[in-house]
Design goal:
186 residues, mainly alpha, 7 helices
């Protein structure tokens, strides 16, 4: 498909595809994003315009992308919900620290690139091995390793400062407790 043919194909089918995805998702922005991704995939594949066959392929790609995003969102939500822990014998300060840590974790997860986030969640939430992730995503094991390394590096950088603050807080609490105990023994 030449660039001009692609533009015509885009103009003829963009609204229909977007409306189809909007009705499925209820989110106009998401629908527009997925349709744009669909046309990028079509352009990258350099498919000839064969009329209804190509339109059908565009709908198939758009539907697959929508399902992938929907599944990924559900996967992320399930993972975040699974992070709940029971608190026993905790202080309000410890609960607050936990909430701060969880919030930082969620923000960092949201800030990961899509490819890194998908690999991270498949590994950590689903418990898949790198080879299984590679097979499911159709990429090499090295690509999975690279994405996982990037995700873990991002988490390490984001969490280090927070852990350091918690460490200082705990140390100050221990020193204060030690000083109070020393005074009461005198």
């Amino acid at each position: 498909m030449t660039e001009e043919e692609f533009k015509q194909f885009f103009n003829r089918n963009f609204d229909g595809l977007r409306n189809y995805l909007y009705y499925r998702s209820g989110d106009k922005e998401l629908a527009s994003d997925i349709v744009q991704d669909t046309f990028i995939k079509l352009w990258e594949k350099q498919i000839n315009d064969e009329g209804k066959k190509t339109v059908g392929l565009a709908y198939k790609i758009a539907n697959d992308l929508f399902l992938n995003k929907h599944q990924r969102s559900a996967l992320e939500a399930n993972y975040l919900n699974s992070l709940e822990f029971e608190f026993t014998n905790t202080t309000p300060e410890k609960e607050m620290q936990y909430k701060e840590l969880k919030e930082k974790y969620e923000l960092t997860l949201a800030d990961l690139g899509e490819k890194q986030r998908v690999v991270f969640l498949m590994s950590r939430l689903d418990g898949l091995k790198y080879t299984e992730i590679a097979e499911r995503l159709g990429i090499s094991v090295k690509a999975v390793e690279k994405r996982m390394k990037g995700a873990l590096g991002t988490f390490r950088a984001a969490m280090t400062a927070l852990f350091y603050l918690f460490y200082l807080s705990t140390m100050a609490e221990n020193i204060f407790s030690f000083m109070n105990n020393s005074k009461s023994n005198v």
